[in-house]
Amino acid sequence: MNAVFSFARFSAVLIKEFIQMRRDRVTFAMMIGLPIVQLMLFGFAINADPRHLPTLIELGDNGPITRAVIAGMQNSDYFDFQGVVGGEASGNEALRRGSANFVVVIPQNFERDVVRGHRPEVLLDADASDPSAVGGAAGALGGIVQVAISETFSGPLAGIVPPPPPFSVIVHRQYNPEGKTSTNIVPGLLAIILSMTMVMITAVAIVKESERGTMEMLIATPVRPLEVMLGKILPYVMVGYVQTIVFLTAAYLVFEVPFQGSALAFFMGFNLFIVVNLALGFLISTAARSQMQAMQLSFFTILPSILLSGFMFPFAGMPGWAQFLGQGVPATHFLRITRKVMLKSAEIGDIMPEMGALVLTLLVISAVAMLRYRQTLD
Amino acid sequence: MTDVIAVTGLTKIYGDKRVVDDFDITVPRGAIYGFLGPNGSGKTTTIRMLCGLLTPNAGQGTCLGFDIRTEADRIKEQVGYMTQKFSLYEDLSIRENLDFIGRMYRVKNRGERVAAALDDLGLANRASQLAGTLSGGWKQRLALAACLLHDPKLLLLDEPTAGVDPKARRDFWDEIRRLAGQGVTVLVSTHYMDEAVQCDRIAYIAYGRKLIDGPSAEIPQQVGLETWRVEGPDLAALETRLKSMPGIVQVARFGSSLHVSGTDRQAFEKAVNALKAEGTHRWSQQIAGLEEAFIYLMAGSQDNFAAAPDEAASP
């Protein structure tokens, strides 16, 4: 008799899959090495608040106030003074060539006009073709100059300094007081790495059977689809576990990213996210005819995961339609779970909206995948 | 019930192409049944429908007493299916492959059965070699051993000896006959005439239609060919002349002789007598063999398909 589910057949597929995984050394090394390499690469490389930007200066004047302004800018770490330019043309040329991000122009008679109270203008010429490169520095400049020059006005010049505003604004940077980019990037990166490997490996593992012709033999045996699916997928779930353990350990040791919240909440979200990704990989495998196609289709899912999920750019900053699309990307929700749990001490109750969204995504993906799945060769 | 396979009206349509068209077949228990036909004639599709890998668009019947439409799972348990292309895992060792198949069919005493299979194959000392590194002949033997691990009652072999050397083919057929002697029914597709001769019954398929079906010894008679064997000088020139003469339907070269065949007795004899009178070649009448019959069928079926694909292409 043919049981509805046979443990023997399920374990046959499972054992076979483990043997194949072990034999394919390159893929195996990639699955374990990838999280570490990406963590190191992105954790160290990505900086949303860039410092030490190359800066040139056009000096129309040279006095104690000018020197104070320059010293203040230099001390802020945002600006790295590389030299002096003779005039507007050579400053623009440097910006155009990309050899400098900023040109600071101190006008002629700057000192005199300051003392006379004419409010002269210091020009910061910035290469804003990359807004995020200049944004932080330009925003900080006003304050830097203010502080720098206030110390030089003493004695008779003290009257030039404007009075402080009647109230002060205090920014309280919660969850990431030092404003470290890695604290933001690292938890999100886990979502990206898992999406990448889980989707791609599942899709490729299933397509591989039909591409090599072994699918014909496989479905000629009495094996049931569920036995094949579980047997093929379970090894990769374990890979996901290993990746996550390796990743979290490295994140804690190298980047000192805290893990503040509930481990159980994380575990639940993590398992659900893996299942969603496996379903997505399975869906791709029903459309792809070769391993190459499976890779390409998987790649299409990776870019939205990086760009629309809120991983690289703030989710709230995207236009409404893009946010709508982003809601459909599973990584969006898992990324929120990891950030909430790791940084914001979230408990199970706090991640329910994301869990709900992931369940919904799972249902949609599974329904489409099941409709497309063929038990026969037709 | 002694018929292992009994199907009627089997039809498979891909797009607007009828790959298998209204196919009937009855295979008695213990028979070796040959499927012959040119490439793309629907042999593989038919075999796949018989073991439940493909769902037919029309037709019904039983395989091993189970309905081919609804009881594919039961059929699969008792069928050994050897695919045209090697379809075991190349990155698994010989033993791992057999173990895998053993688990899939839930074979009792799997360890002993696998060990016995390895011994029979003569691969016991190479059991941990990867299957992908085996030569074509060994792959074929391994695939057959894997098919037989669960003692199937029906063997479906899809061009099992393609690309295998003659010695290995002979051994393979000895094994097939031994199995048939034990009551295993074998359905085998092939291109080779020397293999066709080994079958008890033969079905010739072309473009999805069965053109002829019968005991292999009776096929030439059914086709109804008259054949003369010609030997002598400058056969190439003679061949060209023969081909243009009325009444002659086929001229096939066999080494240093020509086999000239016709179906219309009167016209054929007239043509042959005219040439015989020239006295340049030695003519001897002979009984048409399977090979002439199939070359004739193959040529005829192509013509029929090109001219009128909807008409029954019977000779």
TrEMBL record, chain A:
Classify the source by domain of life: Bacteria
Q: Does the keyword Cell membrane apply?
A: yes
Q: Which InterPro entries does this one have?
A: ABC-2_transporter_component (IPR051449), ABC2_TM (IPR013525), ABC2_TM_bact-type (IPR047817)
Any one Pfam family here would be: ABC2_membrane_3
- How does the UniProt record describe the way this protein sits in the membrane? Multi-pass membrane protein
- What is the recorded name of this protein? ABC transporter permease
Which family, according to UniProt?
Belongs to the ABC-2 integral membrane protein family.
Organism, per UniProt? Devosia rhodophyticola
Task: Please name the PROSITE patterns in this protein's record.
Answer: ABC_TM2 (PS51012)
Q: Where is the ABC transmembrane type-2 domain?
A: 147-376
UniProt subcellular location: Cell membrane
Q: Which UniProt keywords apply?
A: Cell membrane, Membrane, Transmembrane, Transmembrane helix, Transport
Q: What is its main location?
A: membrane
Q: Where are the membrane-spanning stretches?
A: 26-46, 185-207, 233-255, 261-285, 297-316, 355-373
State whether keyword Coiled coil applies: no
TrEMBL record, chain B:
Question: Known PROSITE patterns for this protein?
Answer: ABC_TRANSPORTER_1, ABC_TRANSPORTER_2
Name the keywords, alphabetized. Answer: ATP-binding, Nucleotide-binding
- Name-wise, this protein is ABC transporter ATP-binding protein
Whether Nucleotide-binding counts among this entry's keywords is yes
Q: Which GO terms describe its molecular function?
A: ATP binding
Under InterPro entries, the record lists: AAA+_ATPase, ABC_transporter-like_ATP-bd, ABC_transporter-like_CS, P-loop_NTPase
Q: Give all residue intervals belonging to the ABC transporter domain.
A: 5-232
Q: Which family does it belong to?
A: Belongs to the ABC transporter superfamily.
Pfam families, alphabetically?
A: ABC_tran
